[in-house]
Amino acid sequence: MALDLAPLAQPAETRIVLVVMDGLGGYSDSQRGTELEEAATPNLDALAAEGAVGLVEPVGPGITPGSGPGHLGLFGYDPLEFELGRGVLSAAGLEVKLNAGDVAARGNLATLDSSGRITDRRAGRLPDPEASEVVARLSTEVKIDGVEVEFVHEAQHRVLVVLRGEGLDPGVADTDPQVTLAEPRVPVALHASAERTADVVSQLDEQVRTILADHPRANVLLLRGFDSHRALPSMQERYGLSPAAVAIYPMYRGIARLVGMDVLPRPADLDAQLAALKEHWDRFDYFFLHHKGTDSTGEDGDRPGKVAAVEALDAAIPSLRDLDPDVIVVTGDHSTPTQMAAHSWHPVPALIWAERVGRDEATRFGERWCRGGGLGLRPTKDLMPIALACAGRLAKYGA
Amino acid sequence: MALDLAPLAQPAETRIVLVVMDGLGGYSDSQRGTELEEAATPNLDALAAEGAVGLVEPVGPGITPGSGPGHLGLFGYDPLEFELGRGVLSAAGLEVKLNAGDVAARGNLATLDSSGRITDRRAGRLPDPEASEVVARLSTEVKIDGVEVEFVHEAQHRVLVVLRGEGLDPGVADTDPQVTLAEPRVPVALHASAERTADVVSQLDEQVRTILADHPRANVLLLRGFDSHRALPSMQERYGLSPAAVAIYPMYRGIARLVGMDVLPRPADLDAQLAALKEHWDRFDYFFLHHKGTDSTGEDGDRPGKVAAVEALDAAIPSLRDLDPDVIVVTGDHSTPTQMAAHSWHPVPALIWAERVGRDEATRFGERWCRGGGLGLRPTKDLMPIALACAGRLAKYGA
Fold it and tell me: What is the CATH number assigned to the segment(s) B89-228?
């Protein structure tokens, strides 16, 4: 049974900063330690020395999280209680408002060969101008009886699809098989009430193939993550916080918006993120700073790149400390070991720096020092109540 | 909230071996360390050095597990969600099929003195030939209106009792008080719907006492663990695995069967277990190897014996590694410290060896090295998803 924190929330003149190094965690093998262990991180090490460290699991032991559940955990929301489909995440990232009953899915423009098999799931990562032309054609030409279809170009091959109309149901299985040399899957209703929606998706698929038949690369749209908007309780309601997000990438901005954060104007880079933090420092009491470089390099299997991305974030810590925050949390939404070039289940290093966190013996930040640290091995969602407590924002429970 | 792994299960060409050293764990006291710490285990130490170690709790902190819940946890089934009565475990071990509505209990042939008090709960561990004669008499002579009663001899004083008929209910309290110099308990219905069954058990008890009145040692049958068959989801359904059990003792074979394992022909000893593993290696992707010696010596309070049983298993590790498994898990179903000569609640040492498990700093296998290891201190059931993840058998959760 999870404890509802709302009745315990108490106001305080304190500020919490959550620094998310996306995909931060790694693992040691016979060759070497993790990327974070290897990185030179004097500033993070100082936070670790003055604070407490540990390891966190975003969803559960052995479970590899997507970005949605990974971030919900960071914001203190149990990812098993609050699920977010890919379609909803994409819509949130694009600032496309979903109304009750709308169904959203993430689409990939992809390449089919003449036998109907997928040869490229990303249509050669179609350049934006070309992709947006394709999306414009789909927007004009796809017509389905009784359903309004909205196509919104995200970036490269990625497209958001929103279906609006009466009686739609998100219970449709992905048509994207997520492998090449397979055929796209036929849209299947996962339960009876989704049969009409599955039929709508079939019509959509057929029309898209006809419209794009002559395109050399993007001749099909693979769909996954059908979902409807679900209202999440806000961080204001749950914790009494006024939270702000300083994130560059659409998806993380979108997730932040779903939990009621004020999403600050899109910064261009880490320096701009720090500047935004400074500019809006007095207006909020919780800041979510998202650092993407650790994940994108991890996904590319680029170990030196990931080490450099960690070091870039480390260099930003002094500016952050200059703002005089009361609590700093540094961790990741999941691990992305360069050995795997993919998200993984490995526990993520975490540190909490605060006057009252309770120092442990760790003097460096990295997986091997986090084992046995004062924060222990925990679900990611438990970092939030500890941070709130360190910020003097949680009253006593019980008499 | 527990996560259902089935939707995440993905096929892989990998093999997992779970080595269960029954009753493995122990505890340090003012005299010395644990049995496992004392044992010379170069091969287990190598697995620990190349893998990750930790401590696991089968049921919960302070809870001493029976073999049923202990093993369910090892197979990734929450023992609090999936309960197995002793009767059902015995039936499974004896390959006695229980149909829906049948009620099974474990019986002990025991000795009552002339005042009706139990002087020996095991009737002097009645030798098998004598015990099976007693059981044959009961099978022939006990007659209860409207209920078919089946007695099956297990070994020594142990007997399975199965009641078959309309309207039976397993909600009957044990008649076995589990102490000597007490009288057997009167069968009591735990709820109204079990009143008829309690009455059947009373009649059974009365007839058994009459039939065995002249037996010098076995003159009563103490019953415990009334239960009905409950279908457990199979490991195939839950994880997409094709599992096989290589176990010698009936109960462990029975539990394995209950979770859908293919139970390989009964091997005579550890060498035969290894040979069976090798013979069937290509047919399965998950193997459960059960090693009993650590528990039986533990229960006897035989410290040198337990140390030797650990070392015997250690010597088998090279043959196991020769098969080239992808993941090896070594742990126990519970602790059996020789100081207590009984099952206990102490956390059980665990190791996972796999290319991607994430090495920690431990270079030996044993309680003191497992503390602070990379696996942390966890519920036993969490080992399964980690093993599946290391075997590449779990897809990402959420977008």
Answer: 3.30.70
Q: Does the CB of A368 have a partner CB in chain B at under 8 Å?
A: yes
Interval B157-164 mean pLDDT:
95
Which chain B residues are within 8 Å of A107, Cβ to Cβ? Answer: none
CB contact under 8 A, A65 and B397: yes
B392 at A interface, C-beta within 8 A = no
pLDDT value at A1 more than 80 = no
For A398, counting Cβ atoms within 10 Å of its Cβ (0-12 exposed, 13-18 middle, 19+ buried), the class is: exposed
Considering all CA atoms of chain B, what is the largest pairwise distance in Å, rounded to the nearest integer? 72
pLDDT, mean of residues B226-255:
93
Contact A59 B3 (CB under 8 A): yes
d(CA B121, CA B132): 17
C-alpha distances (whole Å) from A146 to each of A319, B94, B283 are 54, 62, 53
Q: Which residues of A touch B373 (CB under 8 A)?
A: 371
Contact B398 A68 (CB under 8 A): yes
Of residues B358, B382, B384, nearest to A346 (C-beta): B358
For the structural domain made of A6-84+232-390, what CATH number should be given? 3.40.720.10
How far does CA B110 lie from the centroid of its chain?
Answer: 23
C-beta separation of A151 from A138 below 8 A: yes
- For residue A75, which of A277, A227, A287 has the smallest C-alpha distance? A287
CB contact under 8 A, A62 and B356: no
Mean pLDDT of chain B, nearest integer:
95
- Could you state, in order of their start, the residue ranges of all structural domains in chain A? 6-84+232-390, 89-228
Chain A residues lying within 8 Å of B1, measured CB to CB: 78, 80-81
pLDDT of A22-43, one tens digit each? 999 999 999 999 999 999 999 9
- A64 and B397 within 8 Å at the Cβ level: the answer is yes
B6-83+233-390 is a CATH 3.40.720.10 domain? yes
pLDDT tens sequence across A284-330: 999 999 999 999 999 999 999 999 999 999 999 999 999 999 999 99
Is A106 in CB contact (< 8 Å) with chain B? Answer: yes
Distance from CA of A29 to the nearest CA of B (A): 6
Please give the angle made by the CA atoms of B58, B262 and B350, to the nearest 5 degrees.
Answer: 25
Kindly state whether B372 is in contact with chain A, defined as any CB-CB distance less than 8 angstroms. yes
Q: What tokens were used for A87? A: 């379609």
A211 lies within 8 A of chain B by CB: no
pTM score: 0.89
Chain B: closest CA distance from residue A386 (Å): 20
Report the chain A residue with the minimal C-alpha distance to residue B398.
A66
User: Residues A229-244: pLDDT tens digits?
Assistant: 877 999 999 999 999 9
What ipTM score was computed for the predicted complex, to two decimals?
0.89
pLDDT value, residue A179: 84
CA B195 to chain centre: 30
Q: Indicate yes or no: CB of A65 within 8 angstroms of CB of B394.
A: no
Residue A303 neighbours by CB under 8 Å, 6+ apart: A35, A38, A297, A338
List of chain B residues whose C-beta atoms are within 8 Å of the C-beta of residue A60: 3, 382, 385
Lowest mean pLDDT among A122-126, A304-308, B72-76: A122-126
B355 touches chain A (CB under 8 A): yes
Q: Which tokens sit at A243?
A: 């939270």
Q: What is the distance in angstroms between the CA of the first residue and the CA of the last residue of chain B?
A: 19
Dump pLDDT digits (tens) for B264-322: 999 999 999 999 999 999 999 999 999 999 999 999 999 999 999 999 999 999 999 99
Residues of chain B found within 8 Å of residue A106, distances taken between Cβ atoms: 399
Length of chain B: 399
pLDDT at B1: 64
Tell me: the pLDDT tens digits for A351-371? 999 999 999 999 999 999 999
